[in-house]
Amino acid sequence: MVHAIRVHQTGGPEVLTYEEISVGEPGPGEARVRHTAIGLNYIDTYFRSGLYPAPNGMPFIPGNEGAGVVVSVGEGVTSVKPGDRVAYAGPLGSYAQERLMPADRLVVLPEGIDDRTAAGMMLKGMTAQYLLRQTYNVTKETVLLFHAAAGGVGLIAGQWAAHLGATVIGTAGSAEKVELAKANGYTHVINYREENFVERVKDITGGKGCDVVYDSVGKDTYPGSLDCLKPRGLWASFGQSSGPIADFNLGLLAAKGSLYATRPTLFSYIASRADLEKTAGDLIDVVSRGIVKIEVNQQYPLAKAVDAHRDLEGRKTTGTTVLIP
Prior knowledge:
Layout: E1 2-7, E2 16-21, E3 30-39, H1 42-49, E4 65-73, E5 85-89, E6 98-102, E7 107-108, H2 115-135, E8 143-146, H3 152-163, E9 167-172, H4 175-182, E10 188-191, H5 197-204, E11 210-215, H6 224-227, E12 229-237, H7 251-255, E13 260-262, H8 266-269, H9 273-288, E14 296-301, H10 305-313, E15 320-324
Parallel strand pairs: 8-9, 8-11, 9-10, 11-12, 12-13, 14-15
Antiparallel strand pairs: 1-2, 3-4, 3-6, 3-15, 4-5, 5-7
Helix pairs in contact: 2-3, 2-9
C-alpha cells in the first residue's frame, strides 16, 4: 500500500485527504512510476473545487504533473524501462507516492535536470512553450503582455520571451512580485494593485498596444486585456485564477479592432506522442542550456497538500511549488 491525496467531495482545500491506496501492476501500454516530486499547479484547485469536473468521477486523486522513477512496465511498452527517470504533465492523479501511467505520456529526463526541477517544469514549462512558440510565434518584433508574471508559467515565459528578443510586459500584485518578474526577463512590470494596467500598457507602447496578451487570470482582467491589444491582436485566455468570465461578448472583438481570441489548453497541444516529444524537447533544451531557470521556491510534504493549496490560492507563493511524497 502507498499513500495519496484523494478528493471525495469538491470544495475548499480541506477536502484533500491523505490516505492509503493500492496500486496494481501495469497493464498493456502502462508504466508504474514511483514519484520523487510532484508539481503543484493552479489547475489542481479547479478540479478540487469542482470548477473542472474530474474525468472519472469521485473519488479522485488530483495533480497533473510529477517526476520519478519507472518501477515496472506493461506489455508492449518500449518508450521507457524500469529504472528510467521520467517526468510528465497529465493525466490526473499525480498526488500519490506511486501511480500507473500511460507510458506514452512519460518523458525520459536527461542527467542535467533534477527531479524537483522536472516535477515543477513540465506542465508550466510546456504551457509556456505552446503559448510562445505555437499559439503565437513570438519574435524580436513582438510586444506582449503576460498577466501573473510572477507565477509559475509567468516566470518561465518571461525568461523565454526575453531570450527570443520580445518586448515583455507583465503584471503582478505586489512590489516583491514586480521585482521577481523583472529579474526573470520582463522589460516592464505593472503593479495592478497600484496602477491601471490598461493605461500603463498604452503608455509603455506609445498608444499602439500589444501583439498578444496572455491571460490566465480571467474575470478580473476582462475586458481590460482586450483594450491592451493592437488591431487584429490576439488574446490568449489560458486560465481563470480570479474566476471564470461569465459572458463573453463576441462583438467586443469587432468593436476593439478585429481582435482574435483563443482558449487553448496544454493537453490539446501535446495530444499526440510526436507533439509531446517536440514540446517537451524544446522545454528540456532551453532548461538544459540555462536559458530558462526553474526556481522551486516552495516545497511541502505531500501529506500537507491542504496547506499548499491554501497558500497557492492566497497568492502567497511565487514561481514553482512541489510536493514531496
